[in-house]
Amino acid sequence: MAVADTPNELPAAPLPLPKQSLYESSTQYKNWRFSPEQLAQSRRELNHAAVESLKKLLEQEEPGSTSSVHFLTAEEEHALVVYYARVIGSMCVRIGLSEEVEATATSYLKRFYLKNTVMDWHPMNVTITILFLATKTSNMPISLDYYVSKLPSGKTEAADVLALEFLVAQSLAFEFSVWHAHRALWGVVLDVQSIPEIDQESTKHTHSAALQHIRNSRLTDAELIYTPSQIAMACLYLADPHLAETYLSSKGSGNMLSVVQEAARMIERDGKGTDVGLVREIDLRLKTCKNPERVKGSKAYEARQAKVDAAADKKRALKATASVESRMSQDEMFGPSISLPGDTA
């Protein structure tokens, strides 16, 4: 029976993958964005684990001592971190550092305390390390000596700045690149100039006002929840709602307005920072519930230091043994070194 010829059919071409923006391929988008519920849960779990660990350490240090200790809550820890986010801004003004460095350092501080607790690492110590690191990762380095000379306490040494640098880098998963809302805002302002129905004279004032809202947003969780462009639009909306709505409409992004308004409400609500009186109270209580392993002179500190020293000694011994074995192996292969006439013993 004859089989009808069928034309050779080429396999259908695969559907093209949706184009991914540069931001969507960044580590920030993949690893440092959360929902408000995820952030709250993560902070609660971190705080609970820290308190349980500290109770054991404090009981070993002084049995029965934890009954009178009022450990910090997750909310109190966060309030202290927010206060030091504002301190970063003051330090940048004092030292003469750029908006880019300030924004980067603030992002690092928030990310660090998603992995660590203030009861282990006080934000004051972490902040001086983070800010210096941000000058390097933002490609705006300054000398360590100059940086130390500009720190307000007058008691900080160069070694103090560098002491926590590896811990900070490790906590950031060595992901130093940060996409900032102030850059996205500048892009929007430039784009606005191409829209004829917008009054160009008013945009300069609007940009300045929106930039202040951007700075306030650094005291909130906005960058851990929203994209830089969403934050930029939220700040533009706070500065000039009509301009923001007109711009979104011109771009066919009117459906984005609800997200922009949601972000704007967060920035307006939380962008004022932490009350200084509350910070003093939290910091005073922190002195009673600090990790004793970080307090010089405590039993826990000495025990931990002994372990660190023992591990270092073991590492040096293993290295020395490996070096000897390597030399012995070379002697077996090539024979011992030959002394030439005239060589001194």
From TrEMBL:
Q: Which organism is it from?
A: Rhizoctonia solani
- Tell me where in this chain the Cyclin N-terminal domain is found: 86-176
Q: Name one Pfam family in it.
A: Cyclin_N
Molecular function as annotated in GO:
cyclin-dependent protein serine/threonine kinase regulator activity
Q: Where is this region: Disordered?
A: 319-345
Highest taxon in the source lineage: Eukaryota
Q: Name one GO biological process term.
A: regulation of transcription by RNA polymerase II
Q: What is this protein called?
A: Cyclin mcs2
Keyword list (alphabetical) reads: Cyclin
Annotated Cyclin C-terminal domain ranges read 180-252
